[in-house]
Amino acid sequence: MTTLLLFASTFGLVFALGLQSQFVNNGHYGAAFANSLMISVAQLGALQIVHATTPIHYVAYVIGGPLGIVSSMVLYRRRWKKG
Description:
The protein is mainly alpha-helical. It has one domain. Helices cover 84% and strands 0% of the residues. It is built from three helices and no strands. The chain has helices at residues 2-25, 29-49, 55-79. Helix 1 (2-25) packs antiparallel against helix 2 and helix 1 (2-25) runs parallel beside helix 3. The protein is elongated. The chain starts with a helix and ends with a helix.
């Protein structure tokens, strides 16, 4: 369970940060405001969960970030980017 939580915490945080970058760069003020709440929740979750003790915990935490950023880029382009 800890492995999944570590993965989810870093995935969620980096996903939200990636979306925030897209929203800010493209002038989506409302989305950037709302997404800031998601960032805060994800960051609090990550801080509460991070207590990796085995190699698989570290791998789960590290892999969540790259998958989170790429997922946020894909979602943004499919949902908000026109043209």
